[in-house]
Amino acid sequence: MSGSFRRLPAAALRLLGGRQGFFVRPLSQAQSGGGEGGASGRGSKEAVEQLVRAHPVVVFMKGSPAQPQCGFSNAVVQILRLHGVSDYQAYDVLQDPELRQGIKNYSNWPTIPQVFLNGEFVGGCDILLQMHQSGDLVEELKKLGIRSALLDSEKDHGKK
């Protein structure tokens, strides 16, 4: 798989940010109150697990897909955009300190953003970028029934 998008450095991904309108759905927040979270609230293991498993692609980030609040969260959003993934669940951990700590405890990963595919923790920005560059992200998305837009881009590029 060789395409000009595969090897974009992190700096180039950051430059792509700032534009709005790429996403079909806005930032989705977890529902508050009730549920299986119990007295521990939204940061409990049960509550976090429910969020992680609620959608095939879940991102815990700083800010929203339309307005990421850190460069690493922005890079994750841009990588997903390059692959044509617009239908994903995003949670702004800056809006909820309990959730911010809860996701770190759940994944045993100290930093944000965090990406989950089909309920499984993938990693943060660095891992997603590495998967993007190696082509592994295309394969993981395929397992979820998501066809990467990069495949179409390469096919179109080959016709020229």
UniProtKB/TrEMBL annotation:
Keyword field contains 4Fe-4S: no
Start and end residues of each Glutaredoxin domain: 57-122
GO molecular function, a single term: metal ion binding
Family annotation (InterPro entries): Glutaredoxin, GRX_PICOT-like, Monothiol_GRX-rel, Thioredoxin-like_sf
Keywords (A to Z) from UniProt: 2Fe-2S, Iron, Iron-sulfur, Metal-binding, Redox-active center
Any one GO CC term of the record: iron-sulfur cluster assembly complex
UniProt GO BP: [2Fe-2S] cluster assembly; protein maturation
UniProt-listed PANTHER family: GLUTAREDOXIN FAMILY MEMBER, GLUTAREDOXIN-RELATED PROTEIN 5, MITOCHONDRIAL
NCBIfam families: Grx4 family monothiol glutaredoxin
Protein name from the UniProt record: Glutaredoxin-related protein 5, mitochondrial
